[in-house]
Amino acid sequence: TWKWVVGPMFLYLCERLVRFWRSQQKVVITKVVIHPFKTIELQMMKKGFKMEVGQYIFVKCPAVSRLEWHPFTLTSAPEEDYFSIHVRIVGDWTEGLFNACGCDKQEFQEAWKLPKIAVDGPFGTASEDVFSYETVMLVGAGIGVTPFASVLKSVWYKYCHDATNLKLKKIYFYWLCRDTHAFEWFADLLQSLEAQMQERNNAEFLSYNIYLTGWDESQATHFVMHHEEEKDVITGLKQKTLYGRPNWENEFKTIAGQHPGSRIGVFLCGPEGLADTLNKQSISNSEADPRGVHFIFNKENF
C-alpha cells in the first residue's frame, strides 16, 4: 500500500509548499472602491502575477482571520496593470474585510492603514477558452457575472488595440438577476463597451440581454411606463431590462439560425439547475452533421 500512497502524498506536499510560498509573497492594495449596495472592489498588485480571463484566486486577510481562505473571481483583464476582485458584503468575513479596509468610515483612508492581504493563485476555469471561438454565449446568474466582467474587459482592450487579430467575432451575453442591486457596478462596464462598439461602427459585435427574475407587479408597471425612453431606467443602457426568465429553446434556435456551420461556445457561471438546462439545449440544438452548427457547453458552478 505504501508504494501507492507515497507518490501522491509527495505530490500533494509539493503542491502545498508551492501554495504556501505563493501566499507569502507581498500583495499591495492599490485602491479600494466602494460600489452601491455594500459591494467593494479591491485593486491589488503582486510581483510576477499573471492571469487569464475568468480565473479566480484565494484571498486571506489576517486582520479578519488567520486561517480562512475565500475564493473570488478576478474581475480585471490581463491587459490591466493590476488585478481586482469584487466582494459583496454578505457574511461575517466579508463584513470584517469591509471594516478592515476602512469602508465603514467617512474620511479618506491612508494606504498604509489598509490591511495585509495574502493571495494564492490564480487558478484556471472554463472561461479561459472564450477566445477560441468565433461566436460565444456568455450566461451569468447573479454574482456569477464576475468572470465575464474579466472577459468583456479583455475584449474591450483587444478591440481598442488590434481587433483584426481577434478570432472572437460575436458575443451573446445573458445576465439573470433576482433584483436590481447587482446591476450597479457592472452597468458602467457595459456602457463603456456599448459606446466603444458604436464609435467603431460595430454595435452588432456585442448583443446582451439582462433579465430581472425577481420582479413583482409594481416593478412591471414601472417598466411598462418607461419602456419607450431611450435608455433603461434601471441600468442606464440602451438595451432594455427584461422581466422573467429567457426562453432558452428560442434563444438557441435563433443563434443557430444566424451562425450555420459554426462551433459556438456556451459559457455559464451559475447554479447547477441552469447548467442542466443549457447543457440539454446545447445537445439538442447541435447537428449530427460535422459541418453543421455545434454548441460546446462549458460551465463553472457556485
Automatic annotation (TrEMBL):
Domain (FAD-binding FR-type) ranges: 19-129
Entry cofactors = FAD
Reactions catalysed: NADPH + 2 O2 = 2 superoxide + NADP(+) + H(+)
Q: Where in the cell is it found?
A: Cell membrane
Pfam families, A to Z: FAD_binding_8, NAD_binding_6
Q: Which is an annotated GO molecular function term of this record?
A: superoxide-generating NAD(P)H oxidase activity
Q: Which InterPro entries does this chain map to? A: Cyt_b245_heavy_chain (IPR000778), FAD-bd_8 (IPR013112), FAD-bd_FR_type (IPR017927), Fe_red_NAD-bd_6 (IPR013121), FNR_nucleotide-bd (IPR039261), RBOH/FRE (IPR050369), Riboflavin_synthase-like_b-brl (IPR017938)
The membrane-topology field of this record reads: Multi-pass membrane protein
Show the SUPFAM superfamilies listed in the entry: Ferredoxin reductase-like, C-terminal NADP-linked domain, Riboflavin synthase domain-like
The domain of life for this entry's organism is Eukaryota
Q: Gene encoding this polypeptide?
A: Cybb
Query: What's the protein here called?
Result: NADPH oxidase 2
> So what does this one do?
Catalytic subunit of the phagocyte NADPH oxidase complex that mediates the transfer of electrons from cytosolic NADPH to O2 to produce the superoxide anion (O2(-)). In the activated complex, electrons are first transferred from NADPH to flavin adenine dinucleotide (FAD) and subsequently transferred via two heme molecules to molecular oxygen, producing superoxide through an outer-sphere reaction.
- Identify the PROSITE patterns for this entry: FAD_FR
> GO:BP terms for this protein?
defense response; monoatomic ion transmembrane transport; superoxide anion generation
Would you tell me the Gene Ontology cellular component terms? monoatomic ion channel complex; NADPH oxidase complex
Q: Tell me which UniProt keywords the record has, alphabetically.
A: Cell membrane, Electron transport, FAD, Flavoprotein, Glycoprotein, Heme, Ion channel, Ion transport, Iron, Isopeptide bond, Membrane, Metal-binding, NADP, Oxidoreductase, Phosphoprotein, Transmembrane, Transmembrane helix, Transport, Ubl conjugation, Voltage-gated channel
